[in-house]
Amino acid sequence: MKIKKFYIMFVLIVLISFIFISCSDVKKVPIGGEGETCFSNGYCKNGSNLQCIKDICVNNCDNYCQNDGKCIVADYSNDMNCKCKEGFFGDRCQYQNFCDPNPCLHGGNCKNAIDSYICECKEGYAGNECNICANGYHNDSGSCVIDQKCTATTCGQGICSDAGGVISCNCENTGFTGDRCETDVNECLNNPCDENATCTNTSGSYSCACNNGYEGDGSKCTDIDECLNNPCDENATCTNNLGSYTCRCNDGYAGDGSEGSCIYECDADAHLVVNATNDGCVCTNGYHDEAGTCVIDQNCTDTTCGTGVCSDAGGVIYCNCENTGYEGNRCEVDIDECATNDSNNCDENATCTNTAGSYSCACNNGYEGDGY
Ligand SMILES: [Ca+2]
Ligand SMILES: [Ca+2]
Ligand SMILES: [Ca+2]
Q1: CA distances from residue 105 to 2, 112, 119, 165, 295 in whole angstroms, order as listed
Q2: Other CB atoms closer than 10 Å to residue 331's CB: what's the count?
Q3: 348 C-alpha to center of ligand 3: Å?
Q4: N or C: which end of the chain has fewer CB within 10 A?
Q5: Three-state DSSP state, 73
Q6: What is the pLDDT of residues 310-328, one digit of tens each?
Q7: Angle at Cα 294 formed by Cα 289 and Cα 300, nearest 5°?
């Protein structure tokens, strides 16, 4: 019974205690808000940006960060941190990052400094923002490239200029073309030579040579008159023409006209044949040449030369009319011995009478004798 009484008392006390505690302590439970007691873990309300200082939650964040930085007290932390706006840094965003965005052009490296920045430029660039070309460099399509300098061979035979660090070659009158006068000009494409010459392109120049049959320096060529040197056969006619000449065997000769080629044409006469050495024509047997014509051989007969002596050597009749009283080719013409006193032996007082093949003398009237 005593135990039961004690038990009831105990429950009563617990119940009263509970009611008391829950009523009075509810007002005292920390909620971690500004000016309030910190939570028992020593921090203030999550997301409040309050610091727990001496068990009281205080707001020190306002105006903590500079340059519009946002102050943050992380959950379960009493440390204030600044989330800086772009371009600022430092634990209170007190520094400005002049390198963000990078003001240095052309890949220059930006180094932040107090109130400013310094650009470390890449090779070839200069200026505060690496915006100009350094000495010895020049702008080429927006980039700085190293200046080029003429050397003795840069433009070959041309004239080199390197103004502004840029090579330019004047190839005029060099026979070459191209950026560096490195390409030979083929002058022959413009036909610089005489129309009767052959053009040969050479490195840096060209040459002209007159074609065969022409003479001159190539830029002017004139026909050679080959006939002046008698290039044809002696029995040929030379004809000069542009660039050449022709030889033509004269009438009666056959061949191409070149020296030694013109052979007398024997075919014109049926009785002419080329002789064994091929250097002329001879008549066939039974014929003989008479002024270039083959005439049939003649043979002596008893009457050919009358009373003269006939000879037919070489097919040609020859009459020897000596002492016949006749003359002429065939001794057919009686000689008039009476025509002149020297031709007869008649006495001066005789009369001469011509006869066929002879003459007679008869003493004139008043004279006697045989008349001779
Ligand atoms: Ca050339
Ligand atoms: Ca000629
Ligand atoms: Ca007579």
Answers
A1: 96, 15, 9, 22, 119
A2: 23
A3: 18
A4: N
A5: strand
A6: 999 988 899 999 999 999 9
A7: 75
- Integer Cα distance of 196 and 214 in angstroms: 7
pLDDT at residue 100, rounded to an integer:
83
Instruction: State the DSSP string of 245-312.
Output: EEEEEPTTEES-SBTT--EE--TTSTTEEE-TTSSSEEEPTTEEEETTEEEE-----TTTTTTSEEE-
Residue pair 279/289 in contact (Cβ under 8 Å)? The answer is no
Average predicted confidence (pLDDT) for the chain: 88
Q: Please state whether 191 falls in left (phi above 0), alpha (psi between -120 and 50) or beta.
A: left
Using pLDDT thresholds of 50, 70 and 90, give the confidence band for residue 8: low
Q: How many CB atoms lie within 10 A of CB 348?
A: 7
DSSP state of 163: G
* Highest-confidence segment of 6-15, 257-266, 319-328: 319-328
Cα(10)–Cα(12) distance, rounded to whole angstroms?
Answer: 5
Confidence category of residue 7, pLDDT binned at 50, 70, 90 = low
Tell me the pTM: 0.44
CB atoms within 10 A of CB 272: 21
Residues having C-beta closer than 5 Å to ion ligand 2: 223, 240, 245
For 68, which DSSP code?
Answer: T
Centroid of chain to Cα 171: 17
Ion ligand 3 neighbours, Cβ < 5 Å: 325, 334, 354, 359
